[in-house]
TrEMBL record:
Stated name of the protein: Phosphoribosylaminoimidazole-succinocarboxamide synthase
PANTHER family per the UniProt record, alphabetical: MULTIFUNCTIONAL PROTEIN ADE2, SI:DKEY-6E2.2
Keywords linked to the UniProt accession: ATP-binding, Ligase, Nucleotide-binding, Purine biosynthesis
InterPro entries the record matches: SAICAR_synt/ADE2_N (IPR028923), SAICAR_synt_PurC (IPR033934), SAICAR_synth (IPR001636), SAICAR_synthetase (IPR050089), SAICAR_synthetase_CS (IPR018236)
GO molecular function, one term: ATP binding
Domain of life: Bacteria
Domain spans labelled SAICAR synthetase/ADE2 N-terminal: 7-232
Species assigned in the record: Deinococcus maricopensis (strain DSM 21211 / LMG 22137 / NRRL B-23946 / LB-34)
Amino acid sequence: VERGELRYEGKAKRVYATPDPQQYVVEYKDDATAFNGQKRDQILGKGSVNNAITSALYPHLERAGVPTHFIAQLSEREQLVRAVEIIPVEVVVRNVAAGSFSKRLGITEGTLLARPIVEYYYKSDVLGDPLINTDTAISMGWATDEDLSTIKALALKVNAFLTPYFLARDIRLIDFKLEFGKTHDGQIVLADEISPDTCRFWDAVSGERLDKDRFRRDLGNVEGAYQEMLARVTREQA
Ligand code: C5P
């Protein structure tokens, strides 16, 4: 697939136009940032690992009834996706207290939540993705009430599929972030990646962190953890 003009460049990915206006190419980079870009580095091989993990998971999610932008993996670092306009609302689903949730509410990391919590953040690098609620998104015109109902239901469906999928591979899915987009005909689809950059994965036996917290918290062996997650995701189950 021929790459056209650069449409968008984020911290971890570039999006290119293609000859078909309904399709984009996404390229995964090795660049890693944390704390709203204040901590920067490269994680060797991260782009290809995150592309491989996302490309393995999205077809499963489609089969589980979650419409997505994914069409095909094109190469080690590239995917072909449906062209969407990203809704500037990041959706976080939490099963276990960790990260900003633990910090904000003073709840010990690892505390099991009685039911999954869905949170919304405004996607804005300059503001550092502030926490919002659905009224904020509707009032600002970022999404409609109906869009947000669809998005919440899809986010919970993703969680309901991924939680047992990872548990079968000895991984606890602690929390994760999703992004949704709108196609030219107004369909809401899951977009962006699902990877150790955007999820917290804890080893079910040892509790070892196998995600970006190794980078954020300087725990070491970041590359090894990402490779281990790819091996678990693509592991054949009995
Ligand atoms: O930092 P926080 O605890 O709010 O993150 C919740 C989840 O969302 C984590 O899995 C984190 O990796 C992910 N996240 C993300 N991109 C952001 C913020 C959080 O992928 N901008």
